[in-house]
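To the wet lab folks,

You asked to see what we're planning to order before we commit. Fair enough. Below is the target structure as tokens, and below that is the sequence we designed to fit it. If anything looks off to you, flag it before the synthesis order goes out.
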């Protein structure tokens, strides 16, 4: 019966072009899935003579463009309690939806960046504390751990011991069999 110019503009139409067209014939879709909408608030308002509010709906307005609304339907009720009509209000949330999508993308990028930074930090920690040949803790990591263990032994009045291992005549292994064999000996001992 009536359509204001702002609503018509959002649909890319004139108010006059909407006159006489049922609101349900405008091609309403469910946001996100873009499937045909199953719930139209003004129809429910007519059926049960009660207001239905906050229903998100969208409609195609261009090639790949959609306008999204929060739709409310309120019945026009006779004295007998029967709905004789309905008023539908359409609050455009398209800009909000776009901003939300942008925010979600930015949050996903930040999360990915954070995860990558955490992974890099873990890799740096391994590089800083492990010998690349054997995978065992390097001197820096050993000293750090030894200090903790020594303090714990003193605090708990426990004995502590340390074993030092050396490969006798290791230079001869490298000289006679090559550095690759020397590396293999070190790895096997480790």
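Sequence we intend to order:
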């Amino acid at each position: 019966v009536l359509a204001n110019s702002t609503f018509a503009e959002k649909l890319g139409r004139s108010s006059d072009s909407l006159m006489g067209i049922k609101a349900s014939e405008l091609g309403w879709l469910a946001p996100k899935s873009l499937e045909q909408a199953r719930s139209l608030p003004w129809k429910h308002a007519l059926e049960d003579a009660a207001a239905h509010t906050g229903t998100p709906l969208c409609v195609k307005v261009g090639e790949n463009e959609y306008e999204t609304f929060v739709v409310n339907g309120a019945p026009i009720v006779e004295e007998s309690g029967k709905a004789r009509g309905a008023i539908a209000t359409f609050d455009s949330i398209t800009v909000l939806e776009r901003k939300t999508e942008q925010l979600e993308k930015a949050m996903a990028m930040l999360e990915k960046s954070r995860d990558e930074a955490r992974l890099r930090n873990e890799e740096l920690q391994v590089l800083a504390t492990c010998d690349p040949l054997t995978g065992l803790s390097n001197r820096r990591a050993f000293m750090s751990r030894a200090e903790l263990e020594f303090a714990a032994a003193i605090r708990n009045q426990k004995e502590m011991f340390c074993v030092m291992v050396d490969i006798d005549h290791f230079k001869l292994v490298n000289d006679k069999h090559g550095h690759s064999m020397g590396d293999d000996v070190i790895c096997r001992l480790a």
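Structural context that might help your review: The mean pLDDT is 91. The CA atoms of residues 98 and 104 lie 10 Å apart.

Thanks,
Computational group
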